[in-house]
Write a structure and sequence with these properties.
Elements lengths: L13 H19 L11 E6 L5 H12 L3 E5 L12 H11 L2 E5 L3 H10 L4 E3 L7 H13 L11 E5 L4 H12 L3 E5 L8 H14 L2 E5 L2 H5 L4 E4 L11 H8 L7 H4 L7 E4 L11 H4 L6 H20 L8 H16 L6
Parallel strand pairs: 1-2, 1-3, 3-4, 5-6, 5-8, 6-7, 8-9
Helix pairs in contact: 1-5, 1-12, 2-12, 3-4, 5-6, 5-12, 6-7
The structure holds phosphoric acid mono(formamide)ester.
Length: 340
């Protein structure tokens, strides 16, 4: 298989993204019956984290273990990258030792640079621009919770909140799959024109639609899914008063707003959440909230993505070849003259 990285869902066709989801569904079905196949026996994944993580770290690490492989958590300050070693050298070295490299980076360019030099698949675990592994999981969750009688292309997805990295990926993923996507936020915090242009290009191919509005009530009117994310992130602490004033209470996903949506509408959040800020407890814990199904699906999705990108590249030697090499090595180790 030729080398491909998972840096941006925009690098993939609708068919390829749906294949990733279908593979994930099959692996999840196997897992639910305790039958996860060891597809990545003895494979290694290097995981570089420049920022903290709960879901992404745990899901990738558990996914590698359950598929028969191994993950290495390389936390900030524990490797030479960016301090005593160039991106080029780090990418080359990790490619010689591991079967894939994962990276959660402060800057998107860190992941694109890594992918430029790596000789194994690079998976983007969130940057300041996007979060592609999250939105494959989100699409799977929507498919599992699809309203009766609808298909993927009929889904109406409304994101309420800041133009975060999750929004960029969600808008591009949903429009790539042909869904109708709406972003509701105060004008200052709406999706940049460039993202909307790319989403519209996706719609031209897929038949979906993209709408950006400052009216959250209109935005949820036909929503099958309402999705929100944090209103501020690490490094934006000085903006909290301004952001809180811009979003609260109009853009908070609370019971009053949730009840303006159709009675089948589901609530989604990538988590972590600031409960009582972007969404209230009565929505987070509502019977139609799917936030923990969504979290669990990170694990199944990482398995699907890891299998999709790594499995076709693994060597599968014959039993004869394995026996030949084992014999060669053991003959040497068992030689009475060894070390004498
Ligand atoms: N949704 C998500 O990426 O969560 P973590 O930051 O905990 O990995």
């Amino acid at each position: 298989m030729s080398l491909r990285h998972f840096v941006d869902t925009q690098d993939f066709t609708k068919k390829e993204l749906l294949d990733m989801i279908e593979l994930t569904r099959r692996i999840k079905a196997a897992d639910k019956q305790g039958c996860t196949p060891k597809l990545l026996q003895d494979a290694s994944l290097a995981m570089i984290f420049e920022e903290p993580s709960t879901r992404t770290r745990v899901s990738f690490e558990v996914a590698m273990t359950e598929l028969g492989g191994h993950a290495l958590y390389l936390k900030p300050g524990e490797i030479h990258l960016g301090v005593r070693e160039s991106m080029y050298d780090t990418a080359k070295v990790l490619s010689r030792m591991c079967d894939a490299v994962f990276c959660r980076a402060l800057k998107h360019e860190t992941v694109t640079e890594l992918a430029k030099y790596a000789e194994v698949p690079v998976l983007n675990g969130l940057t300041d621009y996007n979060h592609p592994t999250q939105v494959v999981c989100d699409a799977l969750t929507m498919i599992e919770h699809m309203p009766e009688g609808k298909k993927v292309e009929d889904l109406n997805v409304t994101f309420i909140g800041d133009a975060t990295n999750v929004l960029s990926s969600l808008m591009l993923m949903c429009t790539k799959l042909g869904m109708n996507f709406t972003h509701a936020a105060p004008k200052k915090y709406q999706a940049p024109d460039e993202w909307v242009k790319w989403a519209k290009e996706n719609c031209a191919v897929s038949g979906g639609t993209v709408t950006v509005t400052d009216d959250p009530i209109a935005a949820v009117k036909n929503a099958d899914f309402i999705y929100t994310d944090l209103w501020w992130w690490v490094g934006q602490e000085d903006q909290i008063p301004e952001r809180r004033a811009a979003f609260m209470p109009k853009y908070q996903v609370n019971k009053e707003l949730f009840e303006k949506a159709p009675s089948h509408c589901k609530f989604m959040h990538c988590l972590p959440a600031s409960r009582g800020v972007e969404a209230t407890d009565d929505v987070m814990d509502h019977p139609r909230s799917v936030i923990f199904d969504q979290s669990e699906n990170r694990l199944h999705t990482e398995k699907g993505l890891l299998a999709y990108f790594i499995y076709p590249r693994l060597k599968r030697p014959s039993e004869e070849l394995k026996a030949y090499h084992k014999g060669q090595i053991e003959d040497f180790l068992n030689d009475p003259k060894l070390g004498k």
